[in-house]
Amino acid sequence: MQSLQNQNLYFPKGVKLQQDISFENGLIKEIKANPDTLKVEEKYLVPGFIDLQIYGAGGKLFSAEPNPDSIRIIEDQLLQEGTTSFLICLATNTPEVFNQCISVIKEYRSEARNCLGLHLEGPFINPEKRGAHVKEYIRKASLDEIKQLLDFGDGTIKMMTLAPELQDEKVIQYLLDHHVIVSLGHSSATFEQATKAYNQGVQTTTHLFNAMSPLQHRAPGIPTAIFNHPMAMASIIVDGLHVDFEVVNIAAKVMKERLFLITDAVAECHTGPYQHHAVDGKFVMPDGTLSGSAMTMLQSIKNCVKYCGISLSDAINMATYYPSKLIKKENEIGQLAVNAEANFVVLDEDMNIAQVFYKGSEIKLNKAASI
User: Fold this and answer.
1) Keyword annotations for this protein (predicted)?
2) Is position 292 annotated in a ligand binding site?
């Protein structure tokens, strides 16, 4: 059995100092206080990060290069960054590209490590709120198409972003009945329409405030529906470009454990319908439209603490425990608990990555991850 001693451990309800954590066969076996140690290490041991919306990493945009090598490179890079669980995301595209990507994930899942499956962001969205999505590929879903898509996906499709105001209720219900997490996004839904969707069972919302009807004093829109609903969750991009840091602060105060972090990160790409160009710390399409982010999950956590008035404990929960609850894996990942996977990140006193463990095995770091 392996162990790390005298660690400051972050749990969903806060930090505990001077703890020993032991693990074996990929699982945490014991967590106990270490009262004999005189010196408290200035390091923080936190759960491995979870990113439920990321398009690429390590120079690979998955939709542009849908092959097992791309996924391996993306997995390797994300483990370097402390992301021990993620959903690879596909933006609105042709059925051929979707099927090709799904085929790769099906083929690869027997050797998959931190890739949990697919998040389909589109194509069943509202063209009025398409953002960087290609308008020509956007369409309304039919129930037969959804059935065929899930059958072909064979369990690899874990989440889908759609605009509920344009989809039939039976389509949404079919997705929910087949254990696909439905996320409201790229939508012009009114407050009433969004509330109805959440009441039907839609669990979450894609990148709060971006590509959705706004919060206005006479038209409360999707954000107010989220704020008012007791169960609806939402992801948010905390790079300071997609959402102002002060707005992140307000959303976190209102939503608490219902708000979680995504990177929405992409990779440089100069071919195909999604050509992401790196410009001044962000990615834009050829026409200048802001596309995905250029940050890591650790950067997002740091931004929450430094700029948004969010405590370190809460920021860590937003990157670990809260998304694990959404995907109903909180007993397996997203927190430090006995019998959970031994996925954790050791941060040094400057909040840079010192060590990463995935299922109990230490990842050899190429270099420390930092802003």
Assistant:
1) Carbohydrate metabolism, Hydrolase, Metal-binding
2) yes
Rounded CA separation 68/357 (Å): 23
CA proximity to 162, closest of 149, 181, 144, 177: 181
- Cα 368–chain centre separation: 22
- Is the CATH code 3.20.20.70 the one for domain 2-46+334-362? no
Would the annotation count 210 as a binding residue?
Answer: yes
Is pLDDT of 276 > 50?
yes
Q: Where in the chain is the domain with CATH 2.30.40.10?
A: 2-46+334-362
Q: What is the C-alpha to C-alpha distance for residues 159 and 172, in angstroms, rounded to an integer?
A: 12
**Cα gap 156→23, rounded to integer Å:** 29
Among 154, 264, 280, 350, the one annotated catalytic: 264
* CATH 3.20.20.140 domain range(s) in the chain: 48-326
CA nearest to 290, candidates 322, 243, 339: 243
pLDDT for residue 97: 96
Closest CA to 22 of 370, 367, 344, 342: 342
> Cα dist. 161→140, 143, 190, 213, 247 in Å?
13, 16, 17, 15, 22
Q: Say whether 291 counts as a known binding-site residue.
A: yes
218 is in an annotated binding site: yes
Predicted pLDDT of residue 35: 77
Active site residue 287: no
What stretches of 132-275 show up as alpha helix (H) in DSSP? 143-153, 169-177, 191-200, 221-228, 245-255
| Angle, CA of 45, 332 and 228, to the nearest 5° | 90
CA torsion sign for 290, 294, 298, 302 is negative
pLDDT in tens, 100-139: 999 999 999 999 999 999 999 999 999 999 999 999 999 9
Q: How far apart are CA 86 and CA 143, in angstroms?
A: 28
Does the pTM surpass 0.85? The reply is yes
Using CA atoms, how far apart are residues 124 and 187, in angstroms rounded to an integer? 10
Query: Does residue 238 surpass a pLDDT of 50?
Result: yes
Q: Is 132 annotated as a binding residue?
A: yes
Please tell me whether 109 is known to bind a ligand: no
CATH match of 48-326 with 3.20.20.140: yes
Encode pLDDT of 67-92 as tens digits. 999 999 999 999 999 999 999 999 99
